[in-house]
Design brief:
2046 residues, mainly beta, 9-stranded mixed beta sheet, 48% strand, extended
């Protein structure tokens, strides 16, 4: 088989001469040599080829070269071919490279091409000439290989005990090492470490070994899976259980440990011999009890191993036998147990196996409603472990019970001749039953129907019977039919009515005998009001009206209806009665104009009352008439059926009015209606009016004035009687003197408690009553009143009333008010009591412990004692400590009664404790066996013992004499009494045995942290003490007494034997097997960099057995996490500063405390910006994260600082997306993020696509003026200008993009603060801002009027304006002619008598100034014009009357229209009855002196239609589409209803949709309903483009098809290309020679657009490939044109413009070499011949060398390929450090790519992916650290999805970049920390730290005081290099002058790895007394200062003669020597009970 390999061709010299093919002189000659492979079967050999050119024609280069494989039969396989090779020295070598040669393909060698030892052939030929001269072949070329290494295993010896195994190898061949043995290098892996010089290792542990054997050439072979067997392992003893129905109980799997298979079994004990087959023993029928079996394992030559299995046999359960029975499916409790066969055990459980699920209760199953069929139920009797459960199955065949349904009551109408009884049944009855009538007059039944036609109303019952199939009984059900009489609405009729009938009776207009009580609805005609049976026809337009009468049927009878058609006739109108006045000097009083209403002209007048007057036409002569009333009737004759119309005018002829005379009166100020009229003097006329002249204003109503509450004093009122024209008014004055009224307050109802002996009635009054009144009881049992108080103590509950009276001063009456007191009974909580209870009472009743007769329903609260649980009236005292507990009982009072309370004191007595039952063992030689100490628990002493069995053993006190008692079990009861508690008892069972007893073998487990493990307690059974322990294994653990010290012993299984001896007894032993486990470990990790306010995840990896409890530290006190169930465990942290987390401790369930390691450092990235700062003349956008509480509601958007995430500047707003913009001059902006662009930027922490808010702040300078602000948003937005909100309140809510305009805002000149608050909820995100000076007011202009018309009123409006100014000049230089919104020009300003135009100018006035002016032009014309509606005018027949004035308009405005035509009642048109016709409407118009007339047509349609588009399309990203714009309806003016995917109301949202979306449309136009129509909207998915930028052409090569260079997705759209030389889809390169042309391409698919850029490189016209001229070395000009890498960092290109392109001397063509010299392209090299374009280049700088036609002409230079803006690239730090097991990391910087998407990273090691994650846009702006790697070499790449932002194929990927993670060679730690404590106030402490080296020097130490004992003390020393102590050669760090407290000690090695420790410097609190002080005024050591002195310290100082010079009982460290001279003095100090004496020197130095 051939070995697979690749080849490339390299340019180099020959390696070894091998063979040479010579030819005649002048011909081509070749020779070859080979280099062998480095190892046997290697693939790195080489063949070197040398070519010598001939000197005859065509024996010159270039050559064609072929390489063949030559098999043993002579067959040839071509491996490679390359033409046009100009090199003469060529090497074939394996690899995957290639050599590019102009005009040839890449050189690729098949991977199976190389087989060392085989033969190869090479052909070299030139072109043309003599064949033998230009074609040469070398054959039989062989590549040699070294000798193969051979190795095998000779022998293996097992490891009977650890470290005793051996392996022997046989090794030969290869190239042995010189100077051996060893002759080879052996690299071993396996359980035992083996040096690489050992061929045959010994002292091996058992296990699997691999070895790699390497010779002197570095060639290797592997020998794998060499197994050293372990010694025999029989497992460990174990005790198991087996069921006595198990015929093959597996003994082998019952062994403990991991025994070897293949051993033998022997039965040792048991009630009967059992049969053993292999590993199985037959236990069927075995008696219950213990059986033991020994297992023996053998591995030669090792000793046998044995282990014993003890099998406890258990009796199997019995579930009976299977059975099959039947049951009916109406049986709700079918007994399954009695259905079993056999004799099953009771107490089992039932499980349903098959059939639809049924409910099983006990042994019964509910089959009611079960589907017919077989159901199986399994009965299970639970076996005692290990016996399996026993089961038996009952199969129940269920038969369907007949179903007659259920009884039901229904109703039927007595006009129903075939009422269906079957469908009236409830439930789901079976068909085919029979019916029987039970009650009611007999009716005929046919099948399921009964004839109810004509039946008397009432109840009828019918029984339905379905025959059952055995065993099911028949089923019956009854239907009760309540027969209801059918309704009668009468018959249709047509009547007439007059349109002045306001209550036309429709009911009497019906034909027939209708039922009363129905309802009326109008069918046709203009809507009228219907009340009961009457319709209001008053004012109805003449015509036909139809009304339907409906009598509602009582269900199930249908409603009955009939229709009345009313033909309305117009009534005559005589106007309405009216009363007028006339002066009796009027000789022609017009009666017609005195009528009310709008009477018809042409009527007649008749005088009815009064002295006769002469009537002429409409005038009556009243001259000289006596004053009084005269009545005149006006009559207009009516057209039948309308009666004549009359109206009466009453003319009151009046004389002069009389107002009476002035007068003075008095009034009380509680009189709310003081009559002023009766206070007048004289005989005034009534009907006058009152006006107040003096005094505080009062309200006058009619003749009454409201004096209630008036201040005392004089008030004057004028009475005016208006004269009936022409009579003058009359007046008179009343003076009212007001007196203050008494005030008794107002009535009130209050409540009082019947324990209130002095209830205050006065304060219970409402209002503000006067004091000093008197009280009188009105109702209720008499109560005593004292002053304002009434005694309610003991009053019966109920209402009591009391009157309060305040005496009034004339003319004021007394004032009274009544207080109603509702007396409420006070609550009763009983009275306090003390009781006793036992502390085993879990429900002690507190209520019954109260004294008295308390009310129930109160609540309990514990007052004293340890807290107990109270439930209802019971308290749980179980377990309470003895003592007093108090509980308060509270009964809630009904207001106003206070709550009542009482206290129960419970004295808790400890319940007697007899301990717990226990079983103990004793020898029958024990004469005083202590029973009390044998009890479980902690029993009370002093109880009594009683034997329950009959041993006869005497009991004395707590001891029993067991001497001579036969072995057996004996029970002794212990009883303890303690009133009031019940007696406590416990039983000790004493198992009496003969001695001695070593216990039983047992297997236990513990941890290797246990320094004192109790072996004796681990024995089985009840062993006697006093034995001796010996270890059977070889752990080396020391044994002391019964305890063994396992500290540091490796986890494994160890055995310890216990041996005991006794007098007369043989020694006996038992074995404890201890499975020893390693302690738990915990490692913390999770380094991360997060933003301030965000959280990060910490990971803790654990070993051991969970659950675990850990403690970790963040630099402060330890934090506990308990109950961790699984590893790894993660949790979130949210530090506010850079914080390192480390573990303090770990404990697990199995081994308790363990070891900890690792750390996690969270580095906080601060959030930029201050959100309270305003941008200065620019917006500053502050971003908040609302994901924790998104809107709605909008109140969740609170701009809380905790949510703040950074800010955007104006530049970042403009650049955040392609749709965003910012005008830096005006600060107008559009922040449009669509639905894909997140909010992100260099100053924002994170990126936010949805659920965020932004607060924009700006201080901006405005000129004085009125401004309108325009803000649009999706979703909510609000704008505050100087703190005032200017947008509608609804703007700040969730909605689609909506634009809002503010009302005009007045701004003064200067700066103003603007705050724009915006939030996004989801979907599209957009907010924009604009503003403008407010526009001129809104006016109507021009206004056209006819000449001689009245002047018009000109109107102006502007929101928020306070006034308006009108001008006649546009410049507004003249003063305003008018102010106000509505201006009617005077003749001086507007001449209405002359045709022409007049203009006026109006401004709106605001507080801060005026707006620009609006122009209003008045056009005075001499003609009128009617503007008709555009045809066709279509109206639905059912639309009702239409106001025709809404269809037309006219100029000049303000005139009057008249209409006529069919269906016209001016000005209305009724289309009713005109459907399908065209009606011509005549319209006339008159305005002033102008008039005109014309006609138009109305098409009355009786149906509506919809027109939908034949096709429609939308882009998925185009946003909301208004469907109303796509359809039209006929007639117009109706409403559309749309439905379909993406439809909301009339809007269509295409996002998320694609393809044809069907939309249905309905249309309603005035009642005309159009048939539903439908149309499709083709939604085009988001489109994208992929472009090919590799095209290179000559200027004259003809047009380039650009469409072939662009691939759209999806296809099917239209391209548009623009750019130099572009026509349509063709590019003409002729005008772009020597350049790379960028052509813009846009793509339109159904209106959806995508765009990109296509690049075409055009060669120079002088390029040789383009037929250009030749040049020489001196004149050639070379210009490199690089193109940036787009989409990939290796997609750059360089085009070399060479002019002239072709050299005159062209021996070698134009050869171009480029070599990368930057870090990004190092190693990249390419060579082109006669091809100036290099593509696929990595970014970076290239050196180029151009050989221009001849080796003597060489041009050099440099050119740089830049990185495109969207290319994914980055810089990686080549090395990182893995410190002490923590995860290593890599740092990425200079991350480049699209700023519209996040990144994904992938880390690989040896080709395998080891980590994948994401990097956000925000993170990519700085350095990114990715951690979690061990030591080794890695590669990393980034990728990015740019499908929405660029045309690059996604994902866009970077190149893979390598990095290495290293780690220290050893652990960094502390060897020792020597500390010295410090006094409290001075830094007198110190520490010396010895460092355990990591072998990475230098070592640095940092020390910081983190927790000072005394506040204010500070110490910090940054990293300082530690030095090596020359005495002990240890690296040490010393720190003197330390305060007391906790220090953070940090060690750091040369790799930067760091360890942190806490070191505590203690406090020296000992008393320190100085022996000198210097009170010399220098501020130092000025007093006798005693350090650490306690309070109340006594100090006495004497001189040397014993005279006291100073003393203090409470010394304050304040003696400065006083006036003593310098010298030595003696002190005595008494401090905290201790005495001190000594001397101190006073030294001033003077």
């Amino acid at each position: 088989m051939k070995r697979l390999v690749n080849f490339i061709i390299l340019i180099s010299g020959l390696i070894f001469s091998h063979t040479q093919l010579m030819a005649q002189p002048g011909c081509l000659s070749i020779s070859a040599s080979t280099t062998s492979t480095s190892c046997f079967s290697g693939n790195d050999g080489q063949i070197s080829l040398n070519i010598t050119a001939g000197n005859i024609p065509n024996a010159q280069p270039p050559w064609d070269i072929e390489l063949f494989f030559q098999d043993s039969g002579g067959g040839l396989t071509q491996l490679a071919f390359h033409d046009d090779v100009s090199f003469t020295n060529i090497i074939f070598t394996p690899g995957n490279g290639s050599l590019n040669i102009a005009g040839a393909e890449a050189f690729g060698i098949p991977s199976n091409a190389f087989d060392p030892g085989s033969e190869y052939r090479i052909n070299v030929r030139s072109t043309g000439g003599v064949l033998t001269c230009r074609n040469k072949t070398l054959t039989n070329i062989q590549v040699a290989e070294p000798t193969q290494i051979n190795g095998s295993v000779n022998t293996i010896t097992p490891a009977c005990t650890p470290g005793t195994g051996t392996i022997s190898l046989d090794v030969s061949g290869g190239t042995p090492l010189g100077g051996g043995p060893p002759n080879y290098i052996y690299t071993w892996t396996g359980p035992t470490a083996i040096p690489n010089t050992v061929e045959d290792p010994i002292n091996l542990n058992a296990g699997n070994y691999n070895v790699t054997i390497e010779d002197a050439l570095g060639c290797t072979i592997d020998i794998l899976n060499i197994v050293v067997p372990v010694g025999p392992n029989a497992g460990a003893d174990n005790t198991v259980s087996a069921c006595n129905n198990n015929a093959a109980f597996n003994l082998f799997t019952s062994l403990a440990g991991t025994p070897d298979a293949g051993g033998t079994w022997t039965q040792l004990t048991g009630a009967s011999a059992r049969t053993i087959t292999g590993n199985n023993v037959d236990m069927v029928g075995a008696s219950a009890g213990a059986y033991t079996f020994e297992y023996r394992a053998t591995v030669a030559p090792c000793p046998d191993a044995t282990a014993v299995v003890t099998v406890n046999v258990v009796t199997a359960p019995n579930a009976g036998a299977d059975n099959t029975v039947s049951a009916c499916n109406n049986n709700g409790a079918f007994n399954l147990f009695t259905s079993l066969s056999g004799t099953p055990d009771a107490g089992g459980t039932w499980t349903q196996l098959t059939g639809a699920a049924r409910t099983i209760t006990g042994n019964n199953v509910d089959l009611a409603g079960a589907t017919a069929g077989a159901y199986t139920f399994q009965y299970t009797v639970t076996g005692t472990a290990p016996c399996a459960n026993a089961t038996a199955v009952v199969t129940v065949n269920v038969v369907t019970a007949p179903n007659a349904g259920a009884d039901n009551t229904v109703s039927a109408c007595n006009n129903n001749g075939a009422f269906n009884l079957f469908t009236s049944l409830a439930g789901t009855p079976d068909a085919g039953g029979t019916w029987t009538q039970l009650t009611g007059a007999a009716r005929t039944i046919t099948g399921n129907n009964v004839d109810m036609a004509g039946a008397t109303a009432g109840a009828y019952t019918f029984q339905y019977t379905v025959t059952g199939t055995a065993p099911c009984a028949n089923a019956t059900a009854v239907v009760t039919v309540n027969v209801v009489t059918a309704p009668n609405a009468g018959a249709d009729n047509t009547v007439s009515a007059c349109n002045n009938n306001g209550a036309f009776n429709l009911f009497t207009s019906l034909s027939g005998t209708p039922d009363a009580g129905g309802t009326w609805s109008q069918l046709t005609g203009a809507a009228r009001t219907i009340t009961g049976d009457n319709v209001d026809m008053a004012g109805a337009t003449a015509g036909a009206y139809t009304f339907r009468y409906t009598v509602t049927g009582t269900a199930p009878c249908a409603d009955a209806t009939a229709v009345v058609t009313v033909n309305v006739v117009t009534a005559p109108n005589a106007g309405a009665d009216n009363t007028v006045s006339a002066c009796n000097n009027n000789g022609a009083f017009n009666l017609f104009t005195s009528l009310s209403g709008t009477p018809d002209a042409g009527g007649t007048w008749t005088q009815l009352t009064g002295a006769a007057r002469t009537i002429t036409g409409n005038n009556v002569d009243l001259a000289g008439a006596t004053a009084g009333a005269y009545t005149f009737r006006y009559t207009v004759t009516g057209t039948a059926p309308c009666a004549d119309a009359t109206a009466v005018v009453t003319v009151n002829v009046v004389t002069a009015p009389n107002a009476g005379a002035d007068n003075t009166v008095s009034a009380c100020n509680n009189n709310g209606a003081f009559d002023l009229f009766t206070s007048l003097s004289g005989t005034p006329d009534g009907g006058g009016t009152w006006t107040q002249l003096t005094g505080a204003a009062r309200t006058i109503t009619g003749n009454n004035v409201d004096m209630a509450g008036a201040t005392a004093g004089a008030y004057t009122f004028r009475y005016t009687v208006t004269g009936i024209a022409p009579c003058a008014d009359a007046t008179a004055v009343v003076t009212v003197n007001v007196v203050t009224a008494p005030n008794a307050g107002s009535d009130n109802t209050v409540s009082a408690c019947n324990n209130d002996g002095a209830f205050n009635l006065f304060t219970s009054l409402a209002g503000t009553p006067d004091a000093g009144g008197t009280w009188t009881q009105l109702t209720g049992a008499a109560r005593t009143i004292t002053g304002n108080n009434v005694d309610m103590a003991g009053a019966t509950a109920g209402a009591y009333t009391f009157r309060y009276t305040v005496t009034g001063i004339a003319p004021c009456a007394d004032a009274t008010a009544v207080v109603t007191v509702n007396v409420v009974t006070a609550p009763n909580a009983g009275s306090d009591n003390t009781v006793s209870a036992c502390n085993n009472d879990g429900a002690f009743n507190l209520f019954t412990s109260l004294s008295g007769t308390p009310d129930g329903g109160g609540t309990w609260t514990q007052l004293t004692g340890a807290a107990r649980t109270i439930t209802g009236n019971n308290v749980d005292l179980a377990g309470a400590a003895a003592g007093a507990y108090t509980f308060q009982y509270t009964v809630t009072g009904t207001a106003p009664c206070a709550n009542a309370t009482a206290v129960v004191t419970v004295n808790v007595v400890t319940a007697p404790n007899a301990g717990g039952n226990n079983t103990v063992s004793a020898c029958n030689n024990n004469a005083a066996f202590n029973l009390l100490t044998s009890l479980a628990g902690t029993p009370d002493a002093g109880g009594t013992w009683t034997e329950l069995t009959a041993s006869g053993a005497p009991i004395t006190g707590n001891n029993v004499n067991l001497t001579g008692i036969p072995p057996g079990s004996y029970d002794f009861e212990y009883r303890v009494s303690a009133a009031p508690c019940a007696d406590a008892t416990a039983v000790v069972t004493v198992i009496v045995s003969n001695p001695p007893n070593p216990g039983l073998n047992n297997t236990v487990n513990t941890c290797n942290s246990n320094a004192s493990f109790d072996l004796f307690a681990s024995l089985g059974g009840v062993p006697d003490g006093g034995g001796v322990w010996t270890e059977l294994t070889a752990s080396g653990a020391p044994i002391t007494g019964n305890n063994v010290n396992f500290t540091g012993i490796p986890g494994a299984s160890y055995q310890f034997q216990y041996t005991i001896t006794a007098t007369g007894c043989n020694p006996v032993s038992a074995v404890v097997t201890v499975d020893l486990f390693d302690v738990a470990t915990a490692t913390i990790s999770g380094d991360a960099t997060v933003c301030t306010g965000q959280s990060s995840t910490i990971t803790i990896t654990l070993t051991g057995v969970g659950p675990w409890n850990i403690q970790y530290s963040d630099g402060g006190a330890p934090i506990a996490i308990n109950g961790i169930a699984a590893s790894p465990h993660t949790f979130s942290v949210s530090p506010v500063i850079n914080t390192t987390y480390s573990l303090v401790s770990v404990t697990d369930t199995r081994c308790g405390a363990g070891t900890v390691s690792g750390s996690a450092t969270i580095t906080m990235s601060p959030i930029a910006g201050n959100p309270a700062t305003f941008g200065n003349e620019t917006w500053r956008a502050y971003v908040y994260d609302d994901s924790g509480s998104p809107a709605p509601p909008a109140t969740n958007i609170d701009f809380n600082n905790a949510k703040y995430r950074g800010f955007l500047t104006e530049t970042e707003i403009a650049g955040i997306s392609a749709f965003s913009s910012y005008n830096t001059t005006t600060d107008v902006f559009n922040l449009n993020l669509s639905n894909t662009v997140p909010v992100a930027g260099p100053n924002i922490c994170g990126s936010y696509l949805n659920d965020y808010s932004i607060r924009f702040r700006m201080t901006k300078t405005f000129a004085a003026g009125v401004y309108t602000f325009t803000v649009g948003a999706d979703d909510g937005v609000r704008l505050l200008v100087d703190g005032v909100s200017v947008l509608p309140a609804g703007a700040f809510s969730t909605h689609a993009f909506t634009t809002y305009n503010s009302n005009p805002v007045c701004l003064t000149a200067g700066t103003h603060n603007l705050v724009l608050e915006y939030f996004d909820r989801g979907g599209f995100s957009r907010v924009d801002f604009n503003y403008s000076a407010s526009p001129p007011p809104t006016v109507t202009s021009p206004i056209s009027l006819c000449v001689n018309s009245p002047a018009p009123t000109l109107n102006a409006s502007s929101a928020g304006a306070i006034d308006y100014k009108w001008y006649t000049d546009a410049a507004l230089t003249n003063p305003p002619i008018f102010t106000g919104a509505n201006y009617t020009p005077a003749a001086a300003q507007l001449d209405m008598t002359t045709v022409g135009l007049t203009s006026f100018y109006v401004t709106a006035v605001y507080a801060c100034g005026d707006t620009p002016a609006a122009q209003v032009t008045v056009d005075v014309t001499n003609g009128a014009t009617i503007n008709l509606p555009p045809p066709p005018v279509q109206i639905c027949e059912a639309a009702g009357p239409i106001d025709l004035t809404t269809l037309v308009s006219a100029t000049p405005a303000g005139g009057t229209f008249t209409f006529s035509g069919t269906g016209v009642t001016d000005p209305n048109f009724s289309p009713s009855g005109l459907g399908g016709t065209t009606v011509t409407i005549s319209v006339g118009y008159t305005s002033g002196t102008c008039s005109t007339a014309t006609t138009f047509d109305i098409d009355v349609v009786n149906s509506a239609t919809i027109t939908v588009p034949t096709s429609a399309s939308a882009c998925e990203s185009s946003g909301i589409i208004d469907l109303n714009t796509l359809v039209s309806g006929n007639p117009g003016g109706g409403a559309f209803t749309f439905a379909g995917s993406g439809v909301t109301g009339s809007n269509f949202d295409p996002s998320g949709l694609s393809g044809a979306i069907n939309i249905t449309v309905d249309y309603n136009a005035g009642g005309c309903i159009a048939p539903t129509e439908a149309f499709d909207i083709n939604v085009v998915p988001n489109v994208s483009l992929t472009v090919d930028n590799s095209t290179v052409v000559c200027p004259g090569s003809g047009p380039v098809n650009l469409a072939a260079l662009v691939t759209p997705s999806p296809a099917g759209g239209v391209f548009t290309f623009t750019g130099t030389g572009v026509t349509g889809t063709q590019f003409d390169p002729s005008g772009s020679a020597g350049s790379t042309v960028s052509i813009n391409v846009s793509y339109n698919l159904g209106g959806c657009l995508a765009s990109s850029t296509v690049q075409v490189a055009v060669r120079s016209a002088t390029d040789a490939l383009c037929g250009g001229p030749t040049g020489n070395c001196a004149t050639v000009v070379i210009t490199p044109v690089p193109s940036a890498a787009i989409c990939s960092p290796t997609a750059g290109s360089i085009l070399f413009n060479i002019n002239p392109a072709t050299p005159t001397i062209n021996n070698t063509g134009v050869r171009i070499d480029i070599v990368g010299i930057s870090a990004t392209n190092l190693g990249v090299s390419q060579t082109n011949f006669n091809d100036p374009l290099f593509t696929g280049l990595a970014v970076g700088t290239y050196n180029y060398t151009i050989e221009y036609g001849d080796p003597s002409c060489v041009k050099t230079g440099q050119v740089t390929v830049l990185l495109g803006p969207d290319v994914v690239d980055f810089t990686v730090a080549p090395n990182s450090v893995n410190c002490f097991g923590s995860a290593g990391g890599v740092v990425l910087t200079n991350i480049n790519g699209s700023d519209m998407a996040d990144y994904t990273y992938e880390v690989t090691q040896l080709g395998a992916v080891v980590s994948v994650g994401s990097i956000t846009q925000l993170q990519s702006l700085g350095a990114v650290t990715i951690s979690g790697f061990g030591t080794g070499d890695f590669e990393i790449k980034l990728s990015q999805d740019q499908s929405l932002t660029t045309s690059c194929p996604s994902p866009v990927q970077s190149a893979r970049k390598p990095f290495t993670v290293t780690s220290p060679a050893a652990n960094l730690d502390t060897l020792y920390v020597n500390k010295k404590i410090s006094v409290p106030d001075l830094p007198t402490g110190s520490m010396l730290v010895g460092i355990s080296e990591s072998l990475e020097e230098p070592y640095e130490v940092r020390l910081e005081l983190t927790q000072p004992v005394f506040p204010g003390q500070v110490f910090a020393q940054d990293f300082t290099t530690a030095t090596r102590n020359p005495l002990n050669l240890k690296v040490e760090f010393g720190a003197p002058n330390l305060y007391a407290g906790v220090y953070l000690l940090s060690l750091r090695d040369g790799l930067g790895c760091r360890k942190d420790y806490q070191v505590t410097i203690g406090v020296d609190n000992s008393l320190m007394i100085p022996n000198i002080f210097t009170p010399n005024g220098d501020g130092v050591n000025e007093v006798f200062f005693i350090r650490n002195m306690p309070d109340a310290t006594e100090v006495i100082v004497t001189n040397r003669w014993g005279k006291a010079v100073y003393s203090s009982k409470n010394y304050q460290n304040d003696w400065d020597g006083g006036d003593v001279t310098d010298g030595v003095y003696f002190y005595r100090i008494n401090a905290a009970g201790q005495s001190y004496s000594g001397w101190v020197e006073v030294l001033r130095g003077k």
